Amino acid sequence: MSGFRTGQFNREKISPFLRRFCPKQAVTSILEIHASDMVEGGKKLVMLDVDNTLLVWRSEDIPESTLKWIESMRAAGMQLCILSNTRNPGRLDRLAKAMGIPYYLGKFKPSTEMYERALKEFGVTAEQAIMIGDQVFTDILGANRTGIDAIWVKQMAPVDFIGTKVSRLGERMLRRKLYRAIMEEPVDGEDADLPVGGTAAFAMLSNPTVRQFIKFCIIGGTSMVVDLGIFYLLMFVMPMGDALMSERLGAWLVEQSNFFVGLATRENVFDPKLACVPFFKPISAGVAILNSFLWNRRWTFRIRGREHRSVQLRKFFAVALIGLILNTVITTGLGNVIPGHPKRSLFAGQLIATVVVAFWNFFGQKLWTFRGAKTH
């Protein structure tokens, strides 16, 4: 993670919304976390992430420095445990036994479930525990939701699970805002604060990638209008004889299968138009994606000619489809774990998902779909 900054954080310097993602401290390695500081801070339990915190993702080669660090914590009287979102429990079991540390699996972080189980089983309060991990949206957010201090560690290597790569994009978005709470001045580098006001805006607009991203978002907005417009026309405007096309097609579909009867029934109210949604939505979404492809190809990335256009179109659809899946997964997942009223939680999850997927779509199209294409 380039541009990673270390130091202590003062959460009062940022908004309440951002505080839930803000660690107590950021370090480049667990080796910078000393047992004496834990003791002085009244900590008794150290909760640990595994991948890219203690060792590289997918590896089972535990660094000697990590083992020595674990022993230094034990020597100071610290209790340790692992909280993991792993999809490979067999590997985790082997690693935990090699390090001599108990582990917890359960509802994925940032859910508070694993944190609360560990507090209860080790007999400590949230104030007596600390979480150490490399991911803001899982390790840090989960700890903050449980009232536990968290230390953010720079990831050990740039290799990650695909879902983690997506969350890293979100971290990059939050990082600059979180760094406003850091109590040490930045040393140098890309994360030094930009000038404020119009100067900052002009400085950002001078970056070609920023300009491309703005164009990409504009086209995304117009494509959303295309999607909604075509869907509305198909569902509520297009006639067929003396009725709507959706009513006639929906009635025919209902006659063919009970599956469509279920689709056409909402809260005990039957409306045959609803049976057409699985047919009309792909049409409207497909036209919107095609619109997005043509305009992004020509305006955002300035590609001319027909060379490789069909291949680029297939790649564009693939990236967009993955983005749709990610949007659904992130919205559903965060909507279930973000505290507050369900509607507000779902809205917050949708907002975060929209931003994350916007970056996924943009960089997916830029670095894969149109990579190496001749521009003009």
What does this structure look like?
The protein has 376 residues and is α/β, with parallel strands linked by helices. The chain has a domain at 7-181: HAD superfamily/HAD-like (Rossmann fold). Helix content is 55%, strand content 9%. It has 14 helices and 11 strands. Strands 1-2-7-6-3-4-5 form a 7-stranded mixed beta sheet, with helices on both faces. Strands 8-9 form a two-stranded antiparallel sheet. Helix 13 (309-337) runs antiparallel to helix 14 (342-369).
Tags for this model:
single chain, 376 residues, alpha/beta, Rossmann fold, 55% helix, 9% strand, elongated
Brief characterization of the structure:
The chain has 376 residues and is of the alpha/beta class. It has helices at residues 16-19, 35-40, 64-75, 89-99, 113-122, 136-146, 162-178, 198-205, 208-236, 245-256, 258-263, 277-300, 309-337, 342-369; strands spanning 7-8, 25-27, 45-48, 79-83, 103-104, 129-133, 149-153, 239-240, 243-244, 265-266, 269-270.
